[in-house]
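## Example pair
The file below holds two records. Each record gives the amino-acid sequence first, followed by its structure token line.
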Amino acid sequence: MASQALQPPIGARVDGDGRLVSADAPLLLLHEEAGGRLGTMLAVPQLAAIARLATRLGVGITRSAVAATEVEDLELWVRAEPDAHGVSLTVERWSARPPLRQRWSGEARAQAEEGSSGEEEMRTDADLRVVELSPGLARRLGVGIGDAVGKPLGRLLRPIEDGEGNLPMLSALAGRVAFSGQPVRVRGSDEPMVLNGHPQDENGRFSGYVVRVQRQASAPPPLVSLPLDDLLREPLASIIGQAQEIAARSEGPLRSDYAGYGADIASAARHLLELLAAISPDGEGDSAGGSGEPIDLAELVLDAAGLVQPQAAERGVVLDIGGAARLPALGQGRAVTQIIVNLISNAVRFSPSGRSVAITLEEGPQAAVTVADAGPGVAREDRARIFERFEQAGPKSGSAGLGLAISRRLAREMGGEVELLDSPTGATFRLALPPA
């Protein structure tokens, strides 16, 4: 499904058993592409997870989600409102982007897709002939699944004797017991691997092994030769891939809230990748200083709120976003997102459970967003100090005390400002940027 120009809100209705009972055309098409039809369980895992979480909490929630079609990724901003008969879903923002491109290629990419542990699985019969094997293992062995089935294990992998001249796998086969640490080499490529096998019974009789095949650990390359951002980007890309896999399993035995956490992890990791790009010395990312570029401050507020939403839900705090639906400004997108995430996160941390954080977009001589909490506020003697490095107001919260200092520096480098406003209760911070 390739997205056309879509004008949210786009609605859907899920009943108490998780079945999609009504939907606007774009959501219904997305559901059908995922293998569902009207009246069946909601087949888009990310939306199903949000609906179930809203049902479990018993309150309306708003969070971001990324759903994939065959040709593109869809970034969704979803509101879920539970009631006695089910959940109403409203997609308040629907935007398409090209699929996330994996930075790794070749063998490293295949390993990231198959799992960070590098493990794959096969099953053999009692004579160590291959009965079945996973697609990832077939790729590693350079054979088709159909060609491998029925062949002796030794035709695909050459067992290597251990330091004492023994073959753990054959010794275990004689006693029909488990084995571990059997070194092997892939026939053809000579790639080293390790086998761990567990015996299987069928009607009380030994029927073969389930064999886990793992890459043999090798010494990591020296870290000093690589830039720090390159060292971090690849693990973050792997985290994103694994977190998306967790989210995609939300229809299985995995608890729905855990599947939702997977989507949140992926979203946060993407944010970290963007921040790495922003400080990249090779010029790939934006610099916060100097001239700004046109941005939509309202859109960046929604992105930032989506990143903080899990923290807010955990504390029972509602993020209430209001004001201008679109707010053109000049700035650097990644730096602005970092500032807003910090302001909202601080507000959530100091807000009592059951209260809300008001996030308001304001038009005027400057494009501005205010973040107001219902917490204890900031004492007058602390108002200037909290913008200094390593300083915090009130009890230590476990943070380093750098967030506000960095936020103000970034804002000023973009020609804007972060300030603490006077407010009768709680604390109200304001980010102001030049208008576009």
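Second record, same layout:
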Amino acid sequence: MLYVILQKIYIYESISFVNIFYLNMNTNHLAEKRDWLLSILKGYGSLIVAFSGGVDSSFLLAMANEALNKNLLAVTASSELFPEWETREAGDFAKSLGVEHLILQSRIMHRADFISNTKERCYLCKKHLIEELLTIANHRGIQYVAHGANIDDLSDYRPGFVAAQEMGIKSPLVDANLTKNDIRRLSKQMNLPTWNKPSLACLASRIPYGTPITVKDLKMVDQAEQVLFGLGFTGCRVRVHDKVARIEVDTKDIERIIDKKTRSFVLEKLRKIGFTHVAVDLEGYRQGSMNRDLTL
């Protein structure tokens, strides 16, 4: 009996040791990635960060600030494609770091090839933005421009990443082999308020490819999502299919949104915004769900 008890204690302690070993190994590996990223950033000398205010670009900006100090400029594109609150939050974050922040008024919605909303939409948008950033970099004597793509982004359809590569834009988070989870963990260690921020995407990503992008639809999406945010739903999307609003929320929130009281409230608000029909997607929220049409 004593032998059995001692054996169980030994096994428990062995498992605990293994868990601690792997925890330390993962922690050390994360620290190595952080050091690697700092080394990459220091090698740039001076840098413009394409700064959306999301998890990735906020982490990149904070790390670049640590590496480069004053040789750094954050540039945020502003247009109907992005909710105003995102631009405000980006400005507040840059200010909290003491980083110079420039808001660029984008004219992408004036381009017919963009608003026609082909599968190259993101490529065209990214290329347009990069052209603007390179002009600023040339005018200011800044050596490099970087964006916040991470390793996980490479597994999805990312034409914007292709544009960045073609135009020589740096992807330091990719070069440092950082995943989204790595970035969130490091952001939390650094006490960045963005560490658990839901993933962001431009409002055009709510409109199916082939459907022209209009300012009216973008505003309807923004207003509809504000309704959901106000109810405490995070990481949600309102996809537009003509006059139908297809709501994506986390699977754990589906029961809550179809609760009679919540459902009635959402239905009333979205119909006032201009949607004729409102539907909840039973599959729940998934990033880049509109890209599924490209594979069918």
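Notes on the second record: The first strand starts at residue 47 and ends at 50. The radius of gyration is 22 Å.
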